[in-house]
Structures are given as structure tokens and as C-alpha cells.
Amino acid sequence: MTIQDEIKALAFDVGGTVLDWHSGISAAARAACEAAAPDTDWPALANRWRLLQLQGMLGESMNGKTPDRFRGMNIDGVSRAVLDQVLEEFGLTQLDPAARDELSAAWHRLPAWPDSAPGHARLRRKFLMSTLTILSVSLIVDVSRLAPFLWDCVISCEMLGIYKTNPLVYRRGAELLNLAPEQILMVAAHNHDLQAAAREGYRTAFINRPAEWGVETPEPAAAADIDLVADGLEDLADQLGA
Fold it and tell me: How is the beta sheet containing 184-188 ordered, strand by strand?
């Protein structure tokens, strides 16, 4: 039996895997702040914001443990909280609270990678399509309406009260989909997410997103133990016969 025959559902990481957060946030920061500080390195600002966001959600070591000062916040709350630090670091303190709120809302307007929507539509014709993401439910709804993405199921760590890469996330995901872990293909652009899912029995697909962090990315290639490697969702659809 091939992996195409075994898999019943695809569980997606969303940020970075189907969404191009780097371009979206770089552009939003430029639009909000360029008049006051035209020489700002907008890609660097976007990367710094994303890093602090992830550390705020998942801990300095990205171990899924929320730091105490962010406990009880979803990713939207953390994004807004760390934005003040980012603006201070980049000398952009002139933004008033309302402008900061609007800039933080840019995470809800992120563009999808060009292959994401057409690849998603093809894959949905063959497989149950679900998220399994640290993004908030409202963020998933907003970006999915823009893309568009038609999910069969939305599973957010916000709903579970635990965050990746805690093994309970993947166990609960399988339980909610009423499938055995080996019937689910975890789809992500991040090795740590895929390897954590694999330890719970999931099959895994690495999506190459070399521009996720701009010119340089911390995870440029799939780990050796990944089941499938694809250059986008349309390539993944080709490999899965969708």
C-alpha cells in the first residue's frame, strides 16, 4: 500500500507553510512607518517581530511552553504585546496605540504563497483538509477568506490550550479527526513540527519555503526522516495524485 492509499487527511501548519508572512508583514510595516523612517530595514523588522512572536508563544527554546508574562494570550495578543518592543528597537516609537493595533492586525491579512490556494483546492478533492496550527481561530478564518482556503476542519492550538510541539497537540488532532495518526499527513515547512508529529505516528510532508524568512531561512532543507518533500502545495498534489 502506498502513502497515497494510507492517508485520509492532511493536517497543515499555516504560518510559513501556506502563508507568506515575511512579505506581508514587511509590506505592512513599511506602509505604516515609512513616512517617518524611510531607511528602516523592513524585512529585518518583520523577522524580528516573528521571532519575538514565536518566542512569546512557545518559549525561548521553542519548546511549546508559554512564558509566564504571555500566559493566557493567543498569538494575536502576543503579536501586539511584542510589537512595542520591536518598534522601540527599530526607533519607530512615534506610532500611537491605534496605529499599533492596526499594524498588528496585518497578521490577519497575510498573503498566501502563490501555489497555496490552487494546490489546496486540488488536495481537498482527495483528502480531508484540516489545520493544526498555533495561529488563532480568527486569524485562520480571516486569511482563509482572503486566499481562499476551504478547510473541512479548523484545529488551532488556541482551542486545545496546548501548543506545538507538545505531543498532546498531535494526539488530540488525531482524536478530533477520528483517525489513526498514521492516516494523517502533517504538512509543514518546519522540521521540528514534522518530527514531533512523526513521533506520534503521523506521516510527514515537508514544504520547501526557502524565502520564508526572506533571503535567509533557519530551516532550508527537509530532515532525512521526512516522508515527502515538495516545492509547494501543487507539487504535493502531484505527488499524492490529487
Answer: 128-131, 9-12, 184-188, 203-207, 228-230
